[in-house]
Specification:
Elements (H helix, E strand, L loop, with lengths): L1 H29 L2 H11 L4 H8 L3 H9 L1
Amino acid sequence: MTAIQEAIKRDRAARREHAGLSELRGRYQALTPREREVMGRVVSGLLNKQVAAQLGTSEITVKCIAAR
């Protein structure tokens, strides 16, 4: 009985993780190519002002995209 309960717990956790990843994929797919470009730089660790300088846009624009 304990093994079955553990298996059910693991299955629930795996399903939650899968649902979370699916949601993230959907959000990523909803971004425009430019937004993806900005997000790629932001998540790589660049500061907003560095991203803005690289892409020739304003820091405020980068902040708005990153907050999305």
